[in-house]
UniProtKB/TrEMBL annotation:
UniProt keyword terms in alphabetical order: Oxidoreductase
Protein name, UniProt field: NADH:flavin oxidoreductase/NADH oxidase N-terminal domain-containing protein
Organism: Paramecium octaurelia
Family according to the record: Belongs to the NADH:flavin oxidoreductase/NADH oxidase family.
InterPro entries per the UniProt record, alphabetical: OxRdtase_FMN_N, Oye-like
GO MF annotation list: FMN binding; oxidoreductase activity, acting on the CH-CH group of donors, NAD or NADP as acceptor
Superkingdom assignment: Eukaryota
GO cellular component: cytosol
Cofactor dependency: FMN
Pfam families: Oxidored_FMN
Oxidoreductase among keywords: yes
Record domain NADH:flavin oxidoreductase/NADH oxidase N-terminal: where: 6-344
Length: 371
C-alpha cells in the first residue's frame, strides 16, 4: 500500500494542510455542566492530535437552547470563548490547525438540558425513539416562527465571531445527523409551507443563509459544512435526496466555500423501525454525484481506514478523510500511519461520553508503548 498520497499537502481554501489524515468532530462531553467551558483536560486532548491535517472540534452549541448533550463545550459565553482560546493556542503551538464545528440541535435537544426552554424545530414533529444519550423520549418541538429563525441565524453569526475571537482557523457548519440545519433540509422533519419549507430551494434557505453569515466573518476560504444526505440518525430521511443535495451542493459551489464533509452512510432499510429505505437505495454513490458538482475539497467520513482512504483519494472520489474513532484510540494516528506502526482499534465505547481521563487521555502513544 503506497501511503504517500496521504502525506501529499492539500490546499483547502485559504489553509494548507500538511497531510490528508484529518480529525472528525467527536462528541466527548468532558465539560463541567455549570459553565460548559473547555477545561485543561480538553486543551491537552486536542493538543495531542495536532499533527492531523486539521482538527474538527466536537460540535459546539451556539446557545443554551441549542444543547443536545450534557457536558459539550459551548461558544456563546465569554468564559467559553476564553476556554477555547487555550485549546486553539495549544494546537497552534504544536503546528496544528483547528476548526470549530458549530451547531444547533433543534428538535434533537431536551428541555432538561436547556433549563426548561422550549424545544425548537422546523415543524412540530418529534423524533421517534429515545434520546441518544439516555432513556428519555424526545419531545414535540415548537414550530419556529420566521422571527425565531432569524434569531437563530444571528446566533450562528455571533458564534462565528466568537470562534474567530478564540483564534480558530475556520468553522464548519454542522448540517448533518438530524440537527437543526438537517431538519430544515429534509422533508421528513420539515413540513412548513412558508419560505423555509416545501421546495428544495426553500428547505435549503436556512443552511445557505447561515453559510453566508460564516463567510462574512471568516471569508469563504475558511468555511465548510458537513452533510449526511442519506443517514437515518435522529429519524431523518428525504423523499428525493438526489434532487435536494444536488441543488444544495451547486449553491455551495457558487459560494466557493473551502470544503464539504460528506458522511458516507450505509444504513440498512428500516433502521430503528423508521420504515425508511436503505442509504444506498436512495443514492448508491455520494461521491460520484458530488465530485462533478463541487470544485472545493471533498472530505469523506464514516468508518474509513487508511487503506480505504488511499483508495478513494487515488481514484479521485474525494480529497481527504476525517477519521473519528481511530483518532480517539490513536492520538498519534498521523505518526503511526506514516511509519507503518500498528493501529490501536481497541477504543472503549463505554467511555466515549463519560467524565474523566479514562478513555480520553489514557491511550498511550506508540512511542510510549515501546518503552
Amino acid at each position: 500500500m503506497d501511503q504517500s498520497i496521504l502525506f501529499k499537502p492539500l490546499k483547502m481554501g485559504d489553509v494548507e494542510l500538511p497531510n490528508r489524515i484529518c480529525m472528525a468532530a467527536l462528541t466527548r462531553q468532558r465539560c463541567e455542566l455549570k459553565d460548559l467551558v473547555p477545561t485543561d483536560m480538553i486543551v491537552q486532548y486536542y493538543g495531542l492530535r495536532a499533527e492531523a491535517g486539521f482538527i474538527l472540534t466536537e460540535c459546539v452549541p451556539i446557545s443554551q437552547r441549542s444543547l443536545a448533550f450534557p457536558g459539550e463545550p459551548g461558544i456563546y459565553t465569554k468564559e467559553q470563548v476564553e476556554g477555547w482560546k487555550k485549546v486553539v493556542d495549544n494546537v497552534h503551538s504544536k503546528g496544528g490547525r483547528i476548526y470549530a464545528q458549530v451547531w444547533h440541535a433543534g428538535r434533537a435537544s431536551l428541555s432538561t438540558l436547556q433549563d426548561g426552554l422550549e424545544i425548537w424545530g422546523p415543524s412540530p414533529i418529534k423524533i421517534r425513539g429515545i434520546h441518544r444519550r439516555g432513556l428519555i423520549e424526545h419531545e414535540v418541538p415548537h414550530e419556529m416562527t420566521i422571527d425565531e429563525i432569524h434569531e437563530v441565524i444571528k446566533q450562528f453569526r455571533q458564534a462565528a465571531e466568537n470562534c474567530k475571537e478564540a483564534g480558530f482557523d475556520g468553522v464548519e457548519l454542522h448540517g448533518a445527523h438530524g440537527y437543526i440545519i438537517d431538519q430544515f433540509l429534509r422533508d421528513s422533519s420539515n413540513k412548513r409551507t412558508d419560505e423555509y419549507g416545501g421546495s428544495v430551494e426553500n428547505r435549503s434557505k436556512l443552511c445557505l443563509q447561515v453559510i453566508d453569515e460564516f463567510i462574512s466573518v471568516f471569508g469563504n476560504g475558511r468555511v465548510g459544512i458537513k452533510i449526511s444526505p442519506v443517514g437515518r440518525l435522529n429519524d431523518q430521511c428525504d423523499s428525493d435526496p438526489l434532487k435536494l443535495y444536488t441543488h444544495l451542493v451547486k449553491e455551495l459551489e457558487k459560494k466557493k466555500i473551502a470544503f464539504i464533509e460528506v458522511k458516507d452512510d450505509n444504513d440498512p432499510a428500516n433502521l430503528f423501525d423508521f420504515g425508511y429505505p436503505s442509504s444506498k437505495e436512495q443514492i448508491p454513490d455520494l461521491f460520484e454525484v458530488f465530485r462533478p458538482l463541487f470544485s472545493g475539497i471533498l472530505l469523506a467520513n464514516n468508518q474509513y481506514t487508511p487503506a480505504t482512504a488511499i483508495e478513494g483519494i487515488e481514484k479521485g472520489r474525494f480529497d481527504a478523510v476525517t477519521f473519528g474513532r481511530l483518532f480517539i484510540s490513536n492520538p498519534d494516528l498521523v505518526e503511526r500511519v506514516r511509519n507503518g506502526y500498528e493501529l490501536n482499534t481497541n477504543w472503549d465505547v463505554d467511555t466515549f461520553y463519560t467524565k474523566g481521563i479514562k478513555g480520553y487521555l489514557d491511550y498511550p502513544l506508540y512511542s510510549q508503548k515501546q518503552k
